[in-house]
Design brief:
The chain is mainly alpha-helical and 147 residues long. The chain has helices spanning 17-21, 26-32, 61-67, 88-92, 97-103, 122-126, 131-137; strands at residues 40-42, 46-48. The chain contains seven helices and two strands; from the N terminus they run ααββααααα. A two-stranded antiparallel ribbon has the order 1-2. β1 and β2 (46-48) form a beta hairpin. It is flat, with a radius of gyration of 41 Å. The two termini are 24 Å apart. The relative contact order is 0.03.
């Protein structure tokens, strides 16, 4: 199939018969009119529109009820002082060997001591990928160039 190089002008679409006969409703006509605002003549300044009187904001009883803060929980202790006595049980506690081991920093070898962070473990070398993983590892057909 050959492609045409010329520009084809499209004809405007004709509306259906029912939509051509529909007129604007009275509400649409009312909304299309500009809003009427009184204009006041001020000597030396000409005609201007006076500012619109705003209602004073008043809160309803429901808004007042929602604005009241929640009460504190009956079990709330409050903030403790920053300097307070340490309980005797805490002072006499003795950590186990495992807790001492976990509390210390992790021992690592430096690069100059023969540590290679890029070595692959033996378990990872023996792992077999699932068929779905092998499928996902293949390059996408749309990105492969056929020669």
């Amino acid at each position: 199939m050959q492609r045409q190089t010329g520009v084809v002008a499209s004809r405007p679409k004709q509306r259906a018969g029912a939509s051509r006969r529909v007129g604007a409703t009275s509400r649409i006509i009312q909304l299309s009119q500009p809003r009427w605002r009184p204009r006041v003549e001020t000597p030396g300044l000409g005609f201007r529109t006076p500012p619109i009187a705003r209602k004073t904001p008043t809160a309803t009883p429901r808004v007042e009820q929602l604005a009241t803060p929640k009460r504190e929980h009956s079990g709330y202790v409050g903030e403790r002082p920053s300097s307070r006595a340490v309980p005797r049980a805490v002072r006499r506690a003795v950590p186990s060997e495992r807790v001492r081991e976990l509390a210390g920093p992790r021992q690592r070898q430096a690069l100059f001591q023969g540590h290679d962070p890029y070595t692959v473990s033996a378990c990872a070398l023996l792992a077999k990928p699932s068929p779905r993983l092998q499928e996902l590892a293949l390059p996408l057909p749309r990105k492969c160039r056929s020669e």
